[in-house]
Amino acid sequence: MVWILMLFHMLIKYVSSTCDVTAQEIQADSSLRFLTSTGYNEGSGSYINNMDCWWRIDSGGDDLKLLLFLTRDLACPGDKISIYDGDSSTATPLVSDLCGTSATPTHYSTTQRHAYIRLVTDASVSRAGIKLEFLAAKDYSGTGCTGSQTLIAGDNSNLLSSPNFPGLYTNAKTCRWLITSLVGNVDLDIVFSDIEDDLPSRCDYDKYTINDGNDRCENNVVRTVCSQYPKVTPFTFTSSGSSVVVFFVSDSSVNRRGFLLKYKSNATYTTTTVTQTTESSSSQATSSSVEKSNKDPNTCMDARMVIGIVFGSLVVVIFSVIVVVFMILRFHNLQKTIKPKD
Ligand SMILES: *[C@@H]1O[C@H](CO)[C@@H](O)[C@H](O)[C@H]1NC(C)=O
């Protein structure tokens, strides 16, 4: 009996040793990371036959969930992947025995902190394998988009997400966040974007926009995103004043995962505090001038309005000049006609 058990154990060891990966217990965080099967080589390699491989991903907190994007190239029917919503293969599967090739990454999210992944290959035909991207997160949208929200950007990074993240966002949502920094400007780091796909020139369905200022104007949009993952790569932005507006809207159909971003002030509070305590009178002046220089224009004064005003004034000026010239000429003529009579 003991011998059989030992043999069985050796067999398991042998099988799992063919899964030649550096880590099987994986810690996720709020950055998008990935794992690949052995020999994946960015989708151009090939995996090992007779592989039985597992990974367990931990989001790192009971309130956190996992967002997963799977890219696969597996020979059907013998080579397959299963993803479980839990820390072992006894949990509910998010997907079971999936094989074949995906043109775009398939998205999943867990309902709790762990994901357990199992990849099995048979004795024949090997293809590129799998790449699994993952990220730990929760819904950082705040009060559920019931109204406009104001967030303070401080020394440390805070997170903001679309509603229900990392699950699918829901239909007919309109959310507006004003992110404002008491000292300095706002640094945005857009970690992840996955929005219903549309032509970037249209963005008629779902989208999010970043506006540079404390209002949402036509002329201060610095970014409009309406593409699914992985079309939009991460990007960063620093406001020109003390605030930015993040606006998200979804229509009545097709939901994706949304977005995750980090925000912070680009100045440090600690430095300001030190300056203020050491030189009280002069620092007062500095802090108020900082505030002034960081004030954002809060009216949506767009280019057309400016052109309108300039054009309008120009018309008035030209008209006045014409009237004056006309009057002078009239006066001159009047004098001429009067003169011969003298
Ligand atoms: C914050 O960003 C603004 C705009 O890019 C820049 O002018 C300013 O120097 C930055 N402040 C710090 C402390 O880096």
UniProtKB/TrEMBL annotation:
Protein name: CUB domain-containing protein
Taxonomic superkingdom: Eukaryota
Domain spans labelled CUB: 19-137, 145-266
Lineage, highest ranks first: Eukaryota, Metazoa, Spiralia, Lophotrochozoa, Mollusca
Signal peptide (residue range): 1-17
Pfam families: CUB
UniProt keyword Lipid metabolism, yes or no: no
Species of provenance: Magallana gigas
Key words of the record: Disulfide bond, Membrane, Repeat, Signal, Transmembrane, Transmembrane helix
Record-annotated membrane-spanning stretches: 305-329
Keyword Transmembrane helix appears in the UniProt entry: yes
InterPro entries: CUB_dom (IPR000859), Sperma_CUB_dom_sf (IPR035914)
